[in-house]
């Protein structure tokens, strides 16, 4: 992952949102999508990504399946029903946190 320590707390949210938007993805594809969407500003490492994927799977948020692509076995991840519900919850939490952070850092005036 990039050197920004703030990313660690949002990695699960990022993964869940990408899977919601793309239905199914494999690990390397996730890293490349993050790189593409952030113009290279955020680089996920395998050492950060795979433990997060395994935790989400253990928690019942993701399911996996394999396919053979170009004579190689590729492991795909997709949301479970529970994972689909968790995306909404995590995105709401992230939005609320960002709004509070903006207020604390005076990045924008309070709008209510």
TrEMBL record:
Domain of life the protein comes from: Bacteria
Pfam family, one: PadR
Xref: InterPro entries: Metal_resp_DNA-bind_regulator, Tscrpt_reg_PadR_N, WH-like_DNA-bd_sf, WH_DNA-bd_sf
Single GO term (MF): DNA binding
Keywords: DNA-binding
Residue span(s) of domain Transcription regulator PadR N-terminal: 15-87
PANTHER family from the UniProt entry: PADR-FAMILY TRANSCRIPTIONAL REGULATOR, TRANSCRIPTIONAL REGULATOR RV3488
Protein name (database record): DNA-binding transcriptional regulator, PadR family
């Amino acid at each position: 992952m990039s050197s920004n320590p703030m990313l660690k707390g949002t990695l699960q949210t990022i993964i869940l949102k990408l899977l919601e938007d793309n239905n199914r993805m494999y690990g390397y594809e996730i890293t490349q999508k993050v790189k593409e969407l952030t113009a290279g500003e955020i680089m996920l490492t395998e050492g950060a990504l795979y433990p997060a994927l395994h935790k989400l799977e253990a928690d019942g948020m993701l399911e996996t399946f394999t396919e053979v692509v170009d004579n190689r076995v590729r492991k795909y991840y997709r949301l479970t029903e529970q994972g689909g519900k968790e995306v909404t919850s995590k995105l709401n939490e992230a939005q609320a946190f960002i709004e509070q952070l903006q207020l604390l850092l005076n990045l924008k005036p309070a709008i209510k």
